[in-house]
Specification:
Structural class: alpha+beta
CATH class of the largest domain: Alpha Beta
Strand order of the largest sheet: 1-2-5-3-4
CATH architecture of the largest domain: 2-Layer Sandwich
Helix content: 10-25%
Strand content: 15-25%
Number of strands: 13
Shape: elongated
Length: 343
């Protein structure tokens, strides 16, 4: 029975399971020529196809390992790469001539010359039938148009990430599952989009690597908003330190402190994950002035806690042309002076 190996191939770093012809033994890192549904391509051996390694793959493609790569294969691949810049220029000229609403990303030549794959971005559906005819006449081979997303664009063109390592989508990620902001919040990561976004402009894929571990550890802790009983009395959970298995709690006398989760004797009330204060707001004083419309402070002079039913439009307008009633310059002669005043 022929041995099977897992190999990576193509510009999109696709992963497949390939059967070796004859009794050829392959090792990790070997460059081989594989036969896929697209044609003859250069692949790289990753590992032997064991039950454990196959369990990590979801519906992988299959093919055959034809032989090890030769100098002729490498020279042909180098020749195709040398033509890439000119091919991109030619394709962009055709796109402009046909006025197609699409952005060209990359061009991939299959080693055997069976086809040329055109990767592009487009917000809407594009009618590229005329473009395919022109490109088929130019390259003298079959043309495959493949629409991709911004993550696939980074997979094709990006080199290094913020961590200084090659981007994950271009090295070991065969699939790119969705990443949500909840994963960043659970791991206490910064919520600055410029710091948690990858080369593609979306949330970094590495936010998902440790999410399952954080999620499992959080399930073992009482949720935020729970009222618990400890040896020191009742407390309210206002935050969690998932990795340290500790809880930030609010005591009955409105003090905040951190306790280990092992100090919890029982849960009096299970929270919903949102913070509520049955003991009052810890930022306010001990007096309960929550019913005051001004937040516990007495209304200042000139400011009423209730609004007048009359609107501003109903108030009489002041006549700016009218002069105020001022006393005469000489003063009031009929007024009698006081005793303390000088004559």
């Amino acid at each position: 029975m022929a041995k099977k190996y897992i190999a990576r191939f193509g510009s999109m770093r696709m992963v497949g399971v390939f059967s070796a012809k004859g009794k050829n033994l392959c090792h990790r890192g070997d460059k081989v020529v594989v036969q896929t549904d697209r044609g003859m391509e250069v692949g790289e051996i990753l590992t032997e196809a064991t039950e454990r390694s196959l369990s990590f793959l979801e519906s992988p493609v299959s093919g055959t390992i034809m032989r090890e790569t030769t100098e002729s294969d490498f020279s042909q691949a180098d020749h195709q790469r040398s033509r890439l810049r000119d091919d991109l220029t030619t394709c962009e000229e055709y796109i402009k001539r046909l006025q197609l609403n699409m952005t060209l990303v990359d061009i991939e030549h299959i080693l055997g010359g069976e086809r040329v794959v055109i990767y592009y971005l487009a917000e809407q559906r594009v009618d590229f039938r005329e473009l395919v005819k022109l490109l088929a006449s130019e390259f003298q081979t079959r043309i495959e148009m493949r629409q991709i997303g911004v993550r696939d664009e980074a997979k094709l063109l990006a080199d290094y990430g913020d961590c200084g390592q090659p981007v994950c989508c271009g090295t070991h990620l065969a699939q790119m599952p969705p990443v949500s902001m909840r994963m960043a919040k659970l791991q206490k990561a910064t919520l600055d989009p410029t710091k948690i976004s990858g080369r593609c402009g979306r949330l970094k894929c590495c936010l998902r690597y440790e999410y399952e571990t954080y999620d499992e550890l959080q399930r073992e802790l009482p949720p935020i908003g729970s009222e618990i009983l400890t040896r020191d009395g009742k407390m309210l959970i206002i935050n969690q330190e998932v990795m340290n298995a500790q809880l930030i709690v609010l005591t009955e006398d409105k003090r905040r402190k951190m306790i280990p989760s092992s100090d919890v004797i029982s849960i009096i009330h299970v929270g919903t994950g949102e913070l509520q204060h049955p003991y009052g707001n810890p930022r306010q004083g001990s007096n309960d002035n929550s019913k005051s419309p001004s937040g516990g402070r007495p209304p200042s002079k000139g400011h009423s806690s209730t609004h007048s039913p009359r609107s501003q439009k109903e108030r009489p307008k002041r006549d700016k042309s009218a002069k105020p009633d001022l006393p005469p310059k000489g003063g009031n002669k009929d007024r009698k002076p006081n005793k303390d005043e000088r004559p």
